[in-house]
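pls ignore typos typing on phone
flavin-adenine dinucleotide + seq
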Amino acid sequence: MSVVVPECCDDLKRERGRCLFNKEELTNILDGGPKLTEKRRRIEKMLINTPELFDDVSPDYLSHEDRYSNELRKATQLMTTLEKNGFTYNDAVTTGTGLWLLMDGNPLSLHISMFLDTIKGQSNPQQLQEWLPLAEKFKIIGTYAQTELGHGTFVRGLETTATYDSTTKEFVLHSPTITATKWWPGALGKTSNHAVVMAQLYLGGKCYGPHIFMVQLRDLETHRTLPGIVVGEIGPRLGMNSNDNGFLQFNHHRIPLTNMFMKHSQVTEDGKYVKPLHSKLSYGTMVQTRVGIVYHASRELSRALIIAIRYSAVRHQSEMVPGDPEPQILDYQTQQYKLLPHLASFFALRFSARALLEVFIGTSAGLGSGKMNMLPELHALSSGLKAVATNDAVKGTDICRLACGGHGYLSSSNLPRIYTAIAAGITYEGENTVLFLQVARYLIKSFRASSQGQTLPFSVSYLRVQPPSSHAPLMSDRGLVDALGAGVRWMVGEAERRLQQLVDSGHSPHAAWNACSVHLVQCADAHTRYYICEQFVDAVSKLGETVSSGVHEVLRQLCRLYILHRVIQTAGILLRCGAVDGKALTSIEEEECHLLATLRIQAVSIVDAIDIKDVFLKSTLGAWDGNVYQRIYEEAQKSPLNKSDVTQGYYQYLRPLMKANL
Ligand SMILES: CCCCCCCCCCCCCCCCCCCCCCC/C=C/C(=O)SCCNC(=O)CCNC(=O)[C@H](O)C(C)(C)COP(=O)(O)OP(=O)(O)OC[C@H]1O[C@@H](n2cnc3c(N)ncnc32)[C@H](O)[C@@H]1OP(=O)(O)O
Ligand SMILES: Cc1cc2nc3c(=O)[nH]c(=O)nc-3n(C[C@H](O)[C@H](O)[C@H](O)COP(=O)(O)OP(=O)(O)OC[C@H]3O[C@@H](n4cnc5c(N)ncnc54)[C@H](O)[C@@H]3O)c2cc1C
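k done
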């Protein structure tokens, strides 16, 4: 398959003719620099020239088993293609190129993410030396098996036990109840021959809490399940049905002492426990994956936006002015209001993901030299951003679907698949409400620490009890972000006051927490969005000195739209705390409408600059050439029901019904 850029339809030609900025420059910014764009395109070119990686038939037409096998075939083909061309799985992950191909829930995704990340992040030097080469070369295939039928969120409540037997220097893994059954892990059912397993560590009858173990599940030659292990697939789900999410039970299954991951906590041969420097270091893989999910969510949202915005420029419907030709639906202000704030969100999330990655890298470097002090901040930021990014990507993707009318509901638009894949992100890797409550803990703690005169870490420093007053004019970007910050400070102060009031009136701190938790989740959401606004403003102002004026103007407009939209969403709070008044809000609403019309002019060019090729968009509605109707029609011809004029169902059911004397 070669890369042919087709001639586009007149509508899109006209849209592209209005572009006033350098698209390539914007593409480079989104990729993280020209070198990364170049690398991504090299990988893409190589993939596009590997026809085996592309489906002839939609997975919707395959049986459950064929769908799984087909996805596995493509994943293994992808890995060998990368390897043959001098790239690694990691290149496909970091550039996002692998994801475009295999987003129907891929059976190798857990291996190349959480399994490998656990080996890298939780092994001592000997374990690293033993397991990493095997896993990187796919000699062993693994997954991350933590969640159980009974517990996902509450990791401390897991029931699987790992009891040390010092006589044989082994751990005995056991699932004592039905609810202890591991349930959900991707690729656990049929693909993985190994798993990293979270289990309660027992030494001398005492429980030391959840720890991670490397467990072989299947024979490496026959792939048969080992004795003492029951494993299988959990059945169809809302989406990502090409994966084999699985279940797992242990019946007094023995593994060597050296299979406990021992980078942070250790068990000696005689059964003594050595504590980690921080009790939550074993949660490191989850934190790392949350960082990755922020990127992933922004990527998926961008695919939906490209599809919906191109389609909105091609689709004509109704009359804006009676008797006039039908306008492009993108000309309707309501359509712009549906799509363009989400386009701004995509940019905001992309810049925030980059900032979060830097915090992650900095914190990881600190951990290497024994510094644990940045861990709570990283936990709060990664939890909050994972939750906002997935919530917004899911909402944005569904709005994109709705914005495409009936055709958005077609599987061939690819919007349903993007939606169901990213919808899982709200639940997995920490359910979003639960993660927001973790952020809220951090906010309340920080607020209280500030009241006692302590200095606050950077992401919460604006919460200090006596902040410096903002000197920026209210209507400037900085002024509005400061107003949003004042709103969050007010919300957190109010939550803290309510918590204290409940405790003073006799409630336990835990009961008070639950009684305030709706408000606390709102605080966490608002705080995270304030952080995102700050990252967006900072990124655009830093880029200002280095980019052309056209690109800078587009970024400035998107950033402005993001902030204005956020202020309007938060109007109630901002009015209550006096950060803005009604007059300011009216002018913000008017400015937002004006900005929608301005951004609409270059909207197609902006999504073009995200630079996702048709073969990766996989959408009849979003292709570069805008040839929507022909594509929808051709895709429909592939339906198995169209293979014959009269189906078996007619002879079997319909005809007898018609002939019956009812
Ligand atoms: C061939 C294929 C080619 C390509 C295919 C593409 C594949 C993509 C892979 C690419 C990867 C990278 C890039 C993209 C990423 C893509 C992502 C898509 C794929 C990802 C698949 C994911 C599949 C899903 C996996 C899972 O879901 S795994 C299971 C996850 N489970 C959870 O997250 C459970 C959530 N619960 C918890 O984390 C905890 O229980 C809790 C935090 C809620 C509570 O913990 P606990 O009870 O122990 O703690 P307390 O509440 O008592 O708090 C005590 C204090 O500890 C602090 N704390 C808690 N956690 C942490 C932490 N992690 N770090 C630091 N501190 C922590 C609390 O805040 C408390 O502090 P305080 O006392 O000071 O207040
Ligand atoms: C597609 C998919 C893939 C997955 N892949 C994996 C995997 O590879 N490995 C793995 O180990 N797991 C995996 N999981 C499991 C996933 O991590 C859990 O489903 C997730 O952590 C949520 O836990 P739960 O299902 O127990 O939900 P629950 O915790 O039971 O949540 C149910 C409801 O209770 C609420 N709730 C729970 N606790 C609290 C609280 N403290 N305060 C307020 N509200 C609360 C939640 O907000 C939610 O509304 C996957 C899940 C899915 C859907």
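The chain has three domains: 28-104, 142-276, 285-610. The first helix runs from residue 10 to 17. more later
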